[in-house]
Amino acid sequence: MVRGTSMAILSIQSRVSYGYVGNSIAVPAIQAAGLEVWPLDTVSFSNHPGHGQFRGEVRPAAELEAQIDGLAALGVMDRLSAVLSGYLGLPETAGVVATAVDRTRASNPAAPFVLDPVIGDNGRHFVRDGVAEAICEKLLPRADILTPNLYELGVLCGAAIPDDADAISAAARKLIQDSRVMAVAVTGIQRSGMVSNLLVLENARFETMTPCLNRGFNGTGDLFAALLTAWFVRSGDIRSAFARAGGGLDAATRITEQAGRMELDLPAILKSLKTLHPATLLQGH
Hints:
This protein has 9 helices and 12 strands. The chain is of the alpha/beta class. A 10-stranded mixed beta sheet has the order 3-2-1-4-5-8-9-10-11-12, with helices on both faces. A two-stranded antiparallel ribbon has the order 6-7.
């Protein structure tokens, strides 16, 4: 049996060789926040599929399940302080995540499960058939914190949601009321030349806003979810974690834009996280 007192986050999501999405950005971001992270890679691709082509493999659910069994056999599951999941690759992988959450909570009932429901964006799915349904059936009922974009929020709720703060809050609160979710952080809401992130709680909401840049960035949602998870584990305060995640996301996009890079400028981003300024929170109802 391996013994130790340090706490860790289990991060179950994609891995790419070129660029920084999934675990390729989540692992260093969580480590920069001063926490240990154990990655479980659902796919291994050459690059983000958004480039129009990629090579690589989706990892079978049985292979991922075997790795969870290996961690349990090693006797280290009780060191997990949270589970974070992102891109799944296959519908069956949702069952692996569910098993990981259940095993983690068997040792640490208070361990939060942060579900980044990677399904699609801008009106279109970009996951395999059945993945969205598996997320809704197996993972949503187990989630404590959700980090969808606006399109994904609509999928979880069963209907498209307009980019209006009141409508988003109402949809998020329905998820809070219908399941055990404590918070919904909706990312990348674009309106009036600004980009907004909205944290919805049962009786309050908080918003961060930054100027909209003239391009998109692969991996920003993954970075946000990783920072939110890490800082929630560290502080136990979802508002503080949301502000820090928003501040890190703003810094990441500005740094990458200034560098003129196609992919996130990870080395510069990690350096900036050492002196991270939390985003200003605007409070609503």
